[in-house]
UniProtKB/TrEMBL annotation:
Residues where ATP binds: 7-20, 102, 172, 197-198
This protein's record includes keyword tRNA processing: yes
Subcellular location: Cytoplasm
HAMAP family named among the record's database cross-references: TmcAL
A GO BP entry: tRNA modification
UniProt-listed Pfam families: HIGH_NTase1 (PF05636)
Catalysis: reaction(s): cytidine(34) in elongator tRNA(Met) + acetate + ATP = N(4)-acetylcytidine(34) in elongator tRNA(Met) + AMP + diphosphate
Task of the protein: Catalyzes the formation of N(4)-acetylcytidine (ac(4)C) at the wobble position of elongator tRNA(Met), using acetate and ATP as substrates. First activates an acetate ion to form acetyladenylate (Ac-AMP) and then transfers the acetyl group to tRNA to form ac(4)C34.
Class of this enzyme: ligase
Gene from which the chain derives: tmcAL
Keywords: ATP-binding, Cytoplasm, Ligase, Nucleotide-binding, RNA-binding, tRNA processing, tRNA-binding
Cellular-component GO terms for this entry: cytoplasm
Organism encoding this protein: Koleobacter methoxysyntrophicus
Protein name, per record: tRNA(Met) cytidine acetate ligase
Length: 418
């Protein structure tokens, strides 16, 4: 048995994801695929277009053997915390031989070099960084300049300002570097593999061919009723999307949660807002001021964001606020690591992985939500109850009121495809 791990969101699963999955198996020679997948809320600070079980089903149809949920305490955070939670989960299964991730670069040795410098911060690199900051240069630019100086002097790579900007600003490169840092911190034996991203850019919102970004697919669904989606996603993905939409359990967008976010903002003090992760330096004042003026979530985010606080960062803040995830929760999750492995779905080959995990896993495996109550760990219960709450709040956005009941985690079993 040889196992490759993937960190995914599948929002929704498309042909680019299929390429990644097949290429990961091909390069690694893996016999089995395990996915660590975000639940109902995504790393960019937005809800999934359909729920976590539907997306796990999409993955298994296309060749994933086991889908495990990344707890929302990690899935809704910055690249560092997201990557650490996902890689830790994979590491703690005890079954993964490889971690395969997509990147705009595809240059694994270079990504490793950058990850090592940022993680270990050699003395000379720190000196470069201090010198740049003393010139009054903003931190991101100072860090980029320092990386160029250090890499060009101490490695065989030769980078300019344009190169380093691409490497440290493109989303998949950023996550890739954080995955590599997490593997190093964990001293994990898992071997990393990077596949160069092809065709559609991560941020692209236009459909130009068979491989389109998830962003473009979601835009097509919301703006044009998904008329062209059938051509750019696997047939099973299209079938599942249609099924969920017909049941009134999708498509879900950020705007569905605006009334709840606005209600909470208008009754929450600035002092309480300061407890939310990533809120600092007067941002709470902007959030409160704009909450009394804006009429949509998009307008609210636009009113709050600045050069320092990007749209994505504001989105994450607002959805962490909605779920009640505060700074202490995020830091504690990072310090203690994942507390369980929640099974969302598996294939017949996935059963083999679960059987092996029962021997190798360093943390409990949860297949039925009610089982978490039997585990005597206060922090495990706290982390799992955030996942339950995330599902309960997510279901409030369903168009079908009969599907908005509380406790869906307790009566939804893992998706099984033989």
């Amino acid at each position: 048995m040889k196992v490759v791990g993937l960190v995914v969101e599948y929002n929704p699963f498309h042909f680019g994801h299929l390429y990644h999955l097949k290429k990961a198996k091909e390069i690694s020679g893996a016999t089995h695929v395990v996915c660590i997948m975000s639940g109902n809320f995504m790393q960019r600070g937005e809800p999934a277009i359909v729920n976590k079980w539907a997306r796990a089903e999409m993955a298994i149809y296309q060749g994933a053997d086991l889908v495990l949920e990344l707890p929302v305490c990690y899935s809704l955070q910055t690249a560092q915390f997201f990557a650490y939670g996902a890689v830790s989960s994979l590491h703690l299964t005890g079954i993964a031989d490889y971690l395969c991730f997509g990147s705009e670069s595809g240059n694994l040795p270079l990504l490793k070099a950058i990850a090592g410098i940022l993680l270990n911060e050699p003395e000379e690199f720190r000196w470069y960084l201090k010198s740049e900051l003393n010139k009054g240069i903003p931190y991101p630019k100072a860090q980029a300049n320092s990386l160029i100086n250090y890499i060009n002097k101490h490695t065989d790579f030769h980078l300019d300002e344009f190169d380093i900007h691409k490497l440290t600003h493109n989303p998949n490169n950023i996550l890739g570097i954080e995955y590599l840092k997490a593997l190093a911190v964990l001293n994990s034996p898992i071997e990393p593999i990077s596949i160069k991203r092809i065709k559609a850019d991560y941020h692209s919102d236009r459909i130009k061919g068979k491989i389109a970004s998830a962003t473009a697919i979601r835009k097509e669904i919301f703006c044009n009723n998904g008329l062209n989606v059938a051509k750019i996603v696997p047939k099973e993905t299209f079938m599942i999307l249609n099924r969920e939409f017909s049941k009134g359990t999708g498509p879900i967008s950020s705007e569905n949660f605006y009334p709840f976010i606005l209600y909470l903002l208008r009754r929450t003090s600035k002092e309480e807002l300061l407890k939310v992760f990533d809120v600092s330096e007067g941002l709470e004042n902007r959030i409160v001021r704009e909450s009394f003026r804006c009429k949509s979530l998009s307008e609210l985010i636009t009113g709050i964001k600045t050069k320092r606080y990007t749209r994505t960062r504001i989105q994450r803040i607002l959805f962490n606020f909605l779920l009640g995830i505060n700074k202490n929760d995020v830091y504690e999750s990072y310090q203690k690591g994942p507390q369980y492995l929640r099974v969302l779905g598996f294939s017949s080959k996935g059963k083999e992985l679960i059987s092996k995990m029962k021997i190798t896993s360093r943390i409990p495996i949860i297949t039925k939500a009610a089982h978490y109550k039997k585990i005597k760990s206060p922090f495990l219960k706290k982390m799992f109850e955030y996942d339950i709450l995330a599902t309960d709040i997510y279901s409030l956005a369903y168009k079908n009121p009969e599907k908005r009941e509380q406790g869906r985690d307790f009566f939804m079993n893992p998706i099984i495809l033989e």
